[in-house]
Amino acid sequence: AQSVSQHNHHVILSEAASLELGCNYSYGGTVNLFWYVQYPGQHLQLLLKYFSGDPLVKGIKGFEAEFIKSKFSFNLRKPSVQWSDTAEYFCAVLFTGGFKTIFGAGTRLFVKA
Amino acid sequence: DGGITQSPKYLFRKEGQNVTLSCEQNLNHDAMYWYRQDPGQGLRLIYYSQIVNDFQKGDIAEGYSVSREKKESFPLTVTSAQKNPTAFYLCASSAGRNNEKLFFGSGTQLSVL
To answer: What is the mean pLDDT of residues B27-33?
Structure first.
């Protein structure tokens, strides 16, 4: 079955620390990859996406993610987090030819001011 | 102001009762989705619809039903057969073409009395 795994359920960082959230997916052919973010009290929204081309993609608010096909991974990174990055982050995969976007369990990030 | 509107924000269900969650979109999107969000489990797909008058079961469809009589509307009914309905329910839509991102509503929190 197609699945998405996120390595950490809870992460606590101090401001200016670097962030890396892990995401792996089960093999299923060509994929489209997403990171969504849910800030407290707000809608779930797209942070960044990968469809093809350069495996290093940049999103909003200084986030980036790298697609490593050989490792079935799509890790999210940010060099220096801010208090306003406190949110829940979801990795998601859409297998090409399908309509079902599959989500990971989510990672709650808390950034201490 | 384009988007997805879910109502109500909070809903309480009595034992043996069916309840219906509303989802309306004015984005002219073909595809609509219902996800259930539980703490630590991420988002799980209940039902999705690629086009009017057509819908498919997702990964956890048992105890739920949907209809898609209009492009802009995709109501979800939580039936009495759903034994653990307490959760946060998210409606989403996409243009329907492959690799499209999802747009989410603000969600409905359903609780059992």
So the answer is: 93
